Fold this protein.
Amino acid sequence: MSRASGEVSRRAFLGMLGAATALPSRFAHAATGPMLGRAIPATGEEVPAIGMGTWITFNVGDDEALRAERAEVVRTFFERGGAVIDSSPMYGTSEAVIGHCLARIGHEGPLFAATKVWTPLKWFGPGQMEQSRELWGVERFDLMQIHNLLNWEGHLETLLEDKAAGRIRYIGITTSHGRRHDELEKIMATQPIDFVQFTYNVLDREAERRLLPLAAERGLGVLINRPFRQKQLFRQFAHHPLPEWAPEIDCANWAQFFLKFIVAHPAVTCVIPATSRVDHMAENMGALYGRLPDQAMRERMVRYVESL
């Protein structure tokens, strides 16, 4: 696939969409029906295509009532087939709350633990990552990412050493700011990383031009943040009805409409919406099931929201 082309051809789209499969039995869950999985390009390992972010929503400190609520959100996430949880030391108490939730619900099933190193000083990185392991209560992280490209050169050296030593499984780099796409593109094209994370949704589609095609070309896993523009999409569209053709892609609500648009892109590995509510988590996880839009339907979805 040519980076210069800036888009995925219909034939490539259909071929890559074949990588979306029902997950192996180790991802057992309470929900029924085949569940959408995506292969991590570096290894072929499959993960559920809907994960969970924790920015803002899990930064609840020591409030026992709020922690108990978040534990039920996490329980619902796992019961509906989830595995990928993403956080960062930048997210206040979110990592500590994740650890509390995992211990409270006694989760022993699949967990793909992803967090970030977030410090301008390379030598602070190892200590920060060790603290994250303690807060989560995990022996190692599946994915360690460099948050918002902060001192990425220094931290990448550390992460490569950690990966070689088996302390982490995959290396990633993230941004949630479009102004950093040029630098991220250069890193994706030249550095030995396994994952990238950036923003992509039905309205913010700049990533289709360069980042998503390049990720496919380079064999990089892709995590998608801000799929709802931090609730903005709901505020903008929730008072409008779903299109009458939404059942054709098994969408029962706007959350599933927005999420299926994203995960149907063949270069996307997992999208990580954040929520503080059990009912919203159940809606999000519904996007793991049923039919996905093809390229023609995705274009129709864009036209619909842009017409409202």
Notes: The chain has eleven helices and ten strands. The first strand starts at residue 21 and ends at 22.
